[in-house]
Design a protein that fits this description.
heterodimer; A: 436 residues; B: 138 residues; mainly alpha; Cytochrome Bc1 Complex, Chain D, domain 2; 5 helices
């Protein structure tokens, strides 16, 4: 018995010595690694600009700023205000109002609205021009609600190669809310659209310092009256069950489900029925896309004058990994939840595929609750990095019309319609004991 | 024999102590705070409201960026800032000279910016000299 113990002890002693050597070596190695790889506390701050290569980050790179009625958001510009929503706010299918991104075109944006004075006017080619107070909108019409994604046409513009001028958004120029208000059709019917009318134009309280007749003085957008989206459009006075923040369009904004945000006029105050096509700058010149598949073209074709353009409308299908976001290392063998959101302006998301090898192999994720065809749809899947190393998570959404997110880039002069498959590198570390 | 065992014992204790220290060092690092200042954003006070019909969010804050020093900076600050803050410039990626030229032309022709021709040339030259891929610093 005693002998055996000793024998074991001696063997243990040898093992111990081996281990000691190993540990010292490990300590040395760790030390050496510390000398070469910077630890987080002496890491460099984020760069102050990106380019001419693509922005490699999920969000844009501006500082966090505090604006009225808002949580700290990422600054693009201060006048007019453009703010991006940080990635972590997309953990839920509905984006909190205080975190919802902001994008205005003209600098004279409302700071205050007096609701004893304010009216929503329906005018132009109508039988009876009308003006409604907020109380009128609340009392005279039945409320209608829709969950819908609001996404800037230039969301992810900083991904384009070559880069194009404009708001250098990362992926956070989007948000989803439950919008409640009055159906646009009911307002139009109340005023009586005259026959021969073609379009309906929207304008908010924002104005700019530019000369009259230029896009730098007024921002106006129009929809064809024959467009079926007019029947789905809502003049919203509630956003996720709250009054709209001033920066998101208090007291009412237009909600055009499935369409890019350029049509979602903020602080909407004029609805004008037109009997001629709207040829103002924001329809005729701005917010136009190449009339090609995916709205993509090349700088060469553009220069050669080969690009015919049409107004931007619906949002192509997209999906995002929200968590984990790559800011932490994952112990190998630990089962974590990959989760995110997906949406399409063409209808309900029916499938989200996830890959951990950059898009070579895919498997279907579990979809979250269906809040309607124009809402964010959550998705999740459990995932275990079996061995230490680098993994590239890719996500690919499919909508009910059969549109599938492609892995090819988009390029157009406006920097619109980016919907390439997103990729996120995740690092799994060793979690084995015994210094291995 | 016994003395030898003692020696081995002592050696083991010594090794174990070294080992424990080494392993602790390898397993965690603590109490490191670095010299970098924590980034901070002051909290916003809740405004006092009255029950009238005025809904006031207050003034929007300004974030005036440092533009690169050089000829034309003053013109950029006065003319470009008529319609938008100069953050619009530093937000852009480095843009080729021809793109800056097109941007300034667009501001004048498309947006109607009243900029005299000579000033426009100075503005374009400034942007090309400080915000192009070959020369942009921050």
């Amino acid at each position: 018995m005693e002998r055996e113990t000793h024998a074991v002890s001696r063997r243990s002693a040898l093992k111990f010595l081996g281990a000691a050597g190993g540990t010292l070596a490990l300590a040395h190695w760790t030390h050496a690694e510390r000398a070469t790889a910077p630890s987080p506390d002496d890491a460099k701050p984020l760069e102050t600009f990106t380019g001419p290569a693509a922005n490699p980050h999920w969000n844009s790179i501006g500082p966090y700023v505090a604006e009225p009625q808002k949580a700290p958001l990422i600054l693009l510009t201060d006048r007019p205000v453009q703010l991006e929503t940080p990635r972590h706010y997309f953990r839920t299918a509905f984006t909190p109002n205080e975190a919802f991104y902001v994008r205005w075109h003209l600098a004279e944006i409302p700071n205050a609205v007096d609701l004893t004075e304010w009216k929503l006017r329906i005018e132009g080619n109508v039988n009876k021009p009308l003006a409604f107070s907020l109380t009128d909108l609340l009392q005279k019409f039945k409320p209608a609600s829709v969950a819908a994604v609001n996404q800037c046409s230039g969301n992810s513009r900083s991904r384009l190669q070559p880069r194009v001028p404009g708001g250098q958004w990362g992926n956070g120029a989007m948000g989803n809310a439950l919008w409640t208000g009055v159906r646009l059709r009911e307002l139009l019917d109340a005023a009586g659209v005259k026959s021969g009318s073609l379009q309906v134009q929207f304008e908010g309280l924002d104005t700019g310092a530019g000369p009259k007749g230029f896009g730098s003085s007024r921002f106006q957008k129009s929809l064809d009256l024959a467009n079926p989206v007019v029947d789905e459009t809502v003049v919203a006075y509630l956003m996720n069950g709250e009054a709209l923040p001033m920066l998101n369009g208090f007291p009412v904004r237009l909600v055009v489900p499935g369409y890019f945000a350029t049509y979602w006029t903020k602080s909407l105050s004029w609805i004008r029925v037109l009997d001629t096509p709207d040829d103002n700058f924001w329809m005729k010149t701005a917010y136009r896309i190449p009339d090609t598949p995916r709205g993509t073209t090349t700088p060469e074709d553009l220069k050669a004058g080969k690009v015919k353009t049409i107004p931007i409308e619906r949002m192509p299908v997209r999906s995002f990994l929200v968590s984990p976001d790559g800011s932490s290392k994952i112990p190998a063998g630990l089962g974590v939840t990959l989760s995110g959101i997906a949406f399409s302006g063409y209808g309900k998301v029916v499938k989200v595929d996830v890959s951990d090898d950059g898009g070579s192999h895919w498997h279907a994720a579990e979809l979250g609750e269906d809040h309607g065809p124009y809402s964010f749809r959550g998705w999740q899947t459990s995932w275990t990095p079996k061995t230490p190393g680098k993994y590239v998570i890719a996500t690919r959404a499919t909508d009910e019309k059969g549109n599938v997110q492609p892995d090819e880039p988009v390029w157009n002069a406006g920097g619109y319609l980016w919907n390439r498959i997103e990729k996120q590198e995740l690092v799994a570390g060793s979690a084995n004991g015994g210094g291995r | 024999m016994i003395a030898k065992r003692w020696k081995i014992g002592l050696l083991l204790i010594g090794t174990a102590t070294l080992l424990a220290g080494g392993m602790l060092y390898a397993q965690l690092r603590s109490g490191s705070y670095g010299s970098r200042n924590a980034v901070s954003i002051p909290q916003q006070p809740v405004p006092e409201f009255s029950a009238d019909g005025k809904y006031d969010a207050g003034a929007y804050p300004s974030f005036t960026p440092e533009l690169a020093p050089g000829d034309g900076k003053v013109e950029v600050q006065s003319f470009c800032a008529t319609c938008h803050s100069t953050r619009y410039i530093i937000m852009q990626p480095p843009l080729p000279g021809a793109t800056w030229d097109a941007e300034v032309t667009k501001m004048i022709k498309v947006y109607g910016a009243p900029i005299p021709e000579a000033t426009a040339k100075r503005i374009t030259a400034y942007l090309q000299e400080h915000y192009a891929p070959e020369n942009r610093k921050e």
